[in-house]
Write a structure and sequence with these properties.
single chain; 631 residues; alpha+beta; Phosphorylase Kinase, domain 1; Transferase(Phosphotransferase), domain 1; five-stranded antiparallel β-sheet; two-stranded antiparallel sheet; 23 helices; 46% helix; CC_SR_Kinase; Kinase-like_dom_sf; kinase; ATP binding; eukaryotic translation initiation factor 2alpha kinase activity
């Protein structure tokens, strides 16, 4: 029988079952007991027939057979969008809450273990004795990034639906110390979960590489224990139990922090009244245990096969003993560890502390467990793993994004010199990543606590470069002032006209400019000073709000019976510049004696400087008095 026939028959059985169920309810509502009994017998026969035929299993096997044949002989049939693949592959939307998965940041489609990944290395195979229900492998994607793939057998729609519902719970389980799931998909009888590969490996390998008697750092071990308890606390606060806390399910990140993984056994606590303890709120409603690992199972769980939050605490206590025992701690901390260890491994679950209470032990640093979402990468991390602005919104920037941002601002890029120059001109200040945030820049102390040493060194080097550049500018200004003080009055006036009036300059660094495009609120390309083109005054970083109020533009405009706007045309700008330079030259000349005035005017006229700029007309035979009057 073809796959299409199997699917149609299974759909017909499902439809027939639904119709009979409604007919039974209608007959019962009408009081037709005989008819209801007859229809009930017919419904039981139909359900028995469905079970005997095992149509869901047959459909899953036929899907797997067709996918296997296609992958071996007709790989082009497996391309995304092909009619064959759309008919053969069991869609995630058939068995999962797609919207919920997407909100959780999980990609529910668009993966193929055969074509999207390569260089697969099997880490472990399914083993009921160890509690492992799936095959775990390490592989590489097309971009060269390495991932962990977990493959589970999900024979039939019920198993597939259960699997995807388990993954859907992840939208409740986003925490810095819980392993996030990247993607889930199904191929025939197998469902796959794509997860991050952590460079530090699992906690078991980490402990083996660092023996307790001298090779394991106490501070680092305490931090890992605190991370584990933080993750368990987060789960318990949301009414969920991990059910399989052990070193092989705990992974070490590149920064040396612990994350708790393997959520296939996570269970929700049953509703109130199904077995909870009134005398101890930390022993909540029990849940049937489907999988546990020997050595980490609480006594009451082993006897009754019923899991509680206290069972997770017991398993965490065993891990705590392995991680911190054996001489890792010294002094008074040994006694603190013993007290906490005894409480967490108490035979009576009512005497065990909750995970949150265990975190309050004086053994730990009691750092805040507040989580925050990075404004750039959107990752959820503990707030102390990044930097937050001082506004009530407390916009959070994780350490990784902060370091990348500062690195991009300090890096020499031949294709983008503006970014680095602007960062240098603003004294390498780092602001909140939200462009609309009014908070002050982060302090140097805050930055040095979160920047990597090499990134911090780059920023300090750029700060030194900026200081040296400001020193050169100040030296140039002082040299110019000293030179003018030592010049005779006519030469001093001549230099003032040539350097300060006829040459337009940035008021901060004295960099010259000839003209500008469109807007009269200028920014220097050297020091990024914001200044007004009309009055050439320094207004910090932005002069847009000051240009419309510029008294110089208003004064010149009144004399010429016009108005100079924020966006003058080129001809309008030339008219303003000529009139303004005329006015300033007249002011300089009027401050000189008659002889000095005639000497300066003669020098300017002989050089043709004034006439070439349209300020004085040509006329070498004009006497000095006429030339001054013309100015």
């Amino acid at each position: 029988m073809s796959l299409k026939d199997l699917i149609e028959r299974e759909a017909a059985h499902r439809k027939g079952t639904k119709i009979l169920e409604w007919e039974v309810k209608i007959a019962q509502a009408r009081g037709q007991q005989t008819e209801a009994a007859r229809l009930g017998g017919k419904l039981r026969d139909l359900r028995r027939d469905v079970r005997q035929r095992e149509l869901p299993t047959a459909i899953a096997r036929e899907r797997a057979r067709l996918l296997t044949l296609a992958s071996r002989h007709f790989p082009e049939l497996l391309w995304e969008g092909s009619p064959f693949l759309s008919q053969v592959r069991l869609g995630v939307t058939d068995v999962a809450e797609k919207d919920t998965l997407m909100r959780a940041g999980v990609l529910p489609q668009g993966r193929s273990s055969l074509y999207d990944f390569r260089d697969e290395k099997v880490i472990s195979e399914p083993n009921p004795q160890t509690g492992s229900l799936g095959r775990v492998s390490e592989c590489m994607d097309e971009r060269g990034a390495r991932w962990i793939l977990k493959r589970f057998e999900v024979e039939g729609q019920n198993a597939a639906r259960h699997f995807f519902r388990q993954v859907t719970m992840l939208h409740k389980l986003r925490h810095p110390h819980l392993v996030p799931v990247v993607a889930v998909w199904q191929e025939g009888l197998h469902a796959f979960v794509q997860m991050r590969l952590y460079p530090g490996g699992d906690l078991r390998a980490w402990m083996v590489a660092r023996p307790a008697d001298g090779g394991r750092d106490a501070r680092e071990s305490l931090q890992l224990t605190e991370d584990i308890l933080s993750a368990i606390t987060f789960l318990h606060e949301r009414g969920m139990m991990h059910c399989d806390v052990k070193p092989r399910n705990i992974f070490i990140t590149g920064s040396g922090r612990a994350v708790l993984g393997d959520f296939y056994g996570v269970r929700e606590a049953e509703p109130e009244g199904s077995g909870g303890s009134e005398s101890n709120p930390h022993v909540p409603e029990a849940t049937t245990v489907l999988r546990t690992t020997s050595g980490y199972v609480a006594p009451e769980v082993m006897g009754q096969r019923r899991m509680t939050f206290a069972g997770d605490v017991f398993a965490a206590g065993v891990v705590l003993g392995e991680l911190l025992g054996g001489g890792v701690l010294e002094g008074e901390r040994v006694g603190m560890l013993g007290d906490l260890f005894d409480c967490m491994l108490s035979e009576d679950p009512k005497l065990r502390p909750s995970a949150s209470e265990a975190l309050q032990s004086p053994l730990f640093s009691r750092e805040t467990c507040e989580a925050a979402q990075c404004i750039i990468c959107r990752e959820i991390l503990l707030r102390n793993r990044g930097i937050s602005c001082a506004t009530p919104s407390r916009h959070f920037l994780c350490d990784e994004c902060l370091n990348r941002q500062v690195e991009s601002l300090t890096r020499i890029d031949p294709n983008d010199s503006y970014t680095r120059a602007h960062f240098k001109a603003t004294d390498c200040l780092v602001n909140c990543a939200d462009p609309a945030c009014p908070s002050d820049p982060f302090t140097a102390l805050e930055l040095c606590q979160h920047l990597r040493p090499e990134i911090h060194a780059q920023r300090e080097s750029l700060l030194l470069e900026a200081a040296e550049e400001r020193g050169r500018i100040d030296t140039e200004k002082e040299r110019e002032r000293e030179l003018r003080r030592n010049l005779p009055v006519p030469q001093r006036a001549m230099r003032e006209i040539m350097h300060d009036i006829l040459t337009l300059r940035c008021p901060r660094c004295w960099m010259a400019f000839e003209s500008f495009e469109n807007c009269a609120a200028l920014n220097c390309s050297r020091c990024f000073c914001g200044y007004c083109a009309y009055c050439l005054k320094d207004y910090g970083e932005d002069a847009h709000s000051r240009v419309p109020l510029c008294f110089v533009a208003q004064d010149v405009g009144n004399r010429l019976n016009t108005r100079f706007s924020m966006y003058p045309e080129r001809d309008e700008w030339e008219v303003f510049k000529r009139e303004r330079q005329n006015q300033r030259i007249r002011e300089v000349l009027q401050g000189l004696s008659d002889g000095e005035e005639n000497e300066v005017t003669s020098l300017l006229t002989r050089e043709g400087v004034l006439s070439s700029r349209g300020i004085l007309a040509e006329g070498g035979d004009m006497n000095a008095d006429n030339q001054i009057q013309h100015v």
